[in-house]
Every structure is written in structure tokens, then in C-alpha cells.
């Protein structure tokens, strides 16, 4: 008698068998190379797209929903976990291009174990076990679940970079050091832009509570990064090669400027104070990188645009602090009680995103590949700028999702504010904010009352009132 087997179970069994039998056939890889000349097959492309969807879009969105305690957090993270597991198996079941042992495959195991721990924490917390020992250890599970959830986007970003590097067979042997410099520094620029966006849109209250200026944290990070660069850009004891001296001197500039920025970030009475030192460091770094000597004309063009973009980010920051916010600490201070950022303030974060992608996309191997494919620097730079726009859009959407759940708008107050704005546009006094107009009206009323009281104290209470009334009419 034939036994029926569910099609889904059959497909899963075949997939597992392929994964178990899958090996990276080193015999197909030419000597001295890390990948075979075969094209990437459909299975591997599906793996790439699924993992980008899971780790790049679903998990970050679910993280934000978890922070605001949305009921959609668990369903979305469950979807992300299922996609990640499917993508993991597909990554071991592909044909086509084969790869030598690599960091992407090794790190995938760590990432999936981290995901497993996060899922187990989530299941435990969802059971709401709060009696006995569970009541004592629950807070540690909550803390760990939150930390892993916030670390996951960073770890996922690293793994996606490893995936791109592995797929192309880059960053091996003599190219490793240069790759590390480009991808670490480029990611740092993008991370800095994301932090600036967070502080601009949802971090103003936190910044006020720290009683420190934005430039204090910027200068601290710049000084620390400069110390690392000073002692890692050159192999001490060996000869100075290529751009070692330029990279090392750039690190020296960073920690020197960072120390000055820390000193200037507070007033004499201890209150926070804005300064231009971090913006100047960004500008100087951009100028130095725009003049970085390169071996290919394409690389020269890309590095020049990267430098100009970074210089523009520094210059935009100078204009913002000096002329837009006029040295004020937070958006609320300079806007007269409002909470909307000025349009100019979005410019610096975006330029940092673009700088990061330009620098990550300018390694020696990438430039050689594009040059051999006759890709112009204009097309390539426009593609990198497009990716920067998309990342900025995604970050802004996540922050708006967080703000709309954490601080929902008061519709009544918003309607009144819009009505007052219409009145102003139709000829009412042009005040920056409704609070200013109300304050001036209250001051006028207090002035009138003070005049009435002074007339009454002079002994002519009724007469004083009558006189003032006659004058006002």
C-alpha cells in the first residue's frame, strides 16, 4: 500500500538533503583565487534577497516596534526569523559559483546562534512567568532581550558586508588591510550620520538630560578614533609605504582636534556649549581624502567626489551651528518651543551617508572591476548616492514610526495650531510660535492691570478707571 507524503514535507526533506550534501568544491576554484568563475545561480540570488529582507528591513522595523511595545512586534519578528532560517538553508543549497572557506560562512553561524538566543528570550518573556524565581530573573531576560535586539542591526550590517565581499572574492591577501580601512571607515561615517539623525529627530530630550552638547560626544569619539588611527595605520618598525604617513597624520589631527573640542564643549559655569571643531575635522578629512593619490583614473574621480562630499558635510554643519540654530543646544531652544527640525539640518546626516557609501565603494579591487567593465565614475557615483537616499529614507521612516508611537500627536492641539497658522497667514501678527503671541497678550493684560492698581492706590480708584476707559475709547 502506497503511503501518502505531504508535498511540503517532501520539499523540506529534499532541501535538508541538499544542505547536508552541499560542499564548497575547491577543485572548481582556480589556484590563487577565492571564488570559482561560475555565475551566481538563482538559489543564491534568492538567498541574498531573503536575507536582505529579513535582516535589513524586517528585524530593524520589529526592533522599533518592540521598543514602543507594539502588538505587531512579535508577528513581525516571527516573520523575520522564518525568513532568516529559510535564507540560511538556501545559502547552503546553492549551485553555480563556489567559494573557498570565508568569513561570511563562519559569521553566519554566530549570527544564527544569536538569533536563536533572541527568539528563546522572546518566547520566555511572552509566557509572562513572574512567580518565584522567574520574578527575580525576568528583568535580566528583559535587559538581555533588549540589548541583543539593538545589537542585531549592527551585526546584520557586518554580515551583509561580509556577504558582498565574499560573493566577489575580494579582500584577500595583500588587499585585506585596505579593505578593512575602507569598510570600517565607511561604516563609521554612515553610523555617525544615523546617530545625528536619531539625535535630531527623537534624541533632543536625551541630549538635554545629559547636560552636554552634541559636540562633546562628537569630540570624544573623534579623539578616540584618532588615537586608534595613529597607531594602526602604519606597521611600526617597518618601512613607510604608500599612504601610511598621510593616514597616520590624519589620526594625529583627529585626536588633537578632539581634545580641543572636548575643552570647548562647556562654558565657564559648566553648561554645555556648541563648537565647530568636529565639523572642521570632517571638512579637513574630506580635503585630505580628495587629494589622496590613486592608481586608476576611476579611483581618483571617486575619491575626489568622496572628499568633496565629506567637505560639504563639514561645511553644512558649520552653517547649521553658526547661522541656523545660532549655537542653541536643542531644536526646542532655537525654534521657540517647537519640535520640528530645520530643513538644513537634514543635509549633514545625508552627506555622511553618501560619504560612507562612496568610501566603502572605492577599494582597489572594486575600482579595478569597474574599470575593466568600462563603468564611468558618474554612473557609479549616482548609484551610490541613490543607495544613500534610500538608507536615509528608511532611517527617517523608522524614527517616525518610533515617534508616532512614543509621542502621539494631540489632534486637538494640532488643529488649533493649524487654525492659528492660517490666521497668521491672513494678516495676523507674524509670530514664530503661538506661545509667543499668547505671552505678549498676557504681558499686555498685566500691564493694564498694573496701571489700574496704581491709579487705585493714588486715591482715585473710580476716577482712574473712568479716565483709562475714556482714553481707551
Write the layout of secondary structure elements.
Blueprint: H1 7-21, H2 42-67, H3 73-91, H4 103-126, H5 133-168, H6 176-201, H7 204-210, H8 214-232, H9 244-264, H10 277-290, H11 297-324, H12 331-334, H13 347-360, H14 364-372, H15 377-406, H16 411-425, H17 434-457, H18 461-472
Helix pairs in contact: 2-3, 2-5, 2-15, 3-4, 4-5, 6-13, 6-15, 8-9, 9-10, 10-11, 11-13, 13-15, 17-18
DSSP summary, beta strand count: 0
Give me the Rg, rounded. Answer: 30 Å
Number of helices: 18
Derived structural class: mainly alpha
Describe the structure.
It is a single chain. The protein has 18 helices and no strands. Helix 17 crosses helix 18. The relative contact order is 0.07. It has helices at residues 7-21, 42-67, 73-91, 103-126, 133-168, 176-201, 204-210, 214-232, 244-264, 277-290, 297-324, 331-334, 347-360, 364-372, 377-406, 411-425, 434-457, 461-472. The N and C termini lie far apart (108 Å). It is globular and about 70 Å long. Mean pLDDT is 83; it is low at 1-23, 421-437 and 447-473.
List keywords for this structure.
single chain; mainly alpha; globular; 473 residues; disordered N terminus
Brief overview:
The chain has 473 residues and is mainly α. Helices cover 73% and strands 0% of the residues. The chain contains 18 helices and no strands.
